[in-house]
Amino acid sequence: MARAVLNGIEIDYTVSGEYHRVQGGGLVGNNYGVFFSAPLPIFNRNQGHKVEAAALISQARMRREFLEQIIRSEVQSAYARYEAARSAAATFEQGVIARSTENIRVIRAAYELGQFQITDLLSEHRRLLDSQREYTETLAEQYRALADLQAALGGPLMR
Questions:
Q1: What is the C-alpha to C-alpha distance for residues 33 and 19, in angstroms, rounded to an integer?
Q2: Do the domain assignments include residue 42?
Q3: Mean pLDDT score across all residues of the chain
Q4: Strand duo 9-24 + 2-6: pairing
């Protein structure tokens, strides 16, 4: 059995041969035969390939929708993280660090006048350093979230 493709349609065909020697009644003869057989696709409207193609299209559509949903989720998550970190960094910049710096200035002046001990001044310095460390961690998270957002979007953001 062999297979041929004609106009995009696969056809299975068979070619065979036959030989017979006939003897009897004083007669001797040889019979030869060649046979060719192929199905005629009269009722074949390629339904199998059509169903397979429709299934592949449906599968590709579902895969695309799934990936779109994942990307949308990643973008929303990265953007929410970025906005939260940006807001926290702004709070540190506009309030916490400025207030701590001002507190150190006031406590240092009061310490010089003898109203506070050195431990009070050192405690306030420690709070300022803690605030600066937290501010640095917040900036790092902001940049990580921005990098994740750019990765989810597939490129750098326009500014």
A1: 6
A2: no
A3: 86
A4: antiparallel
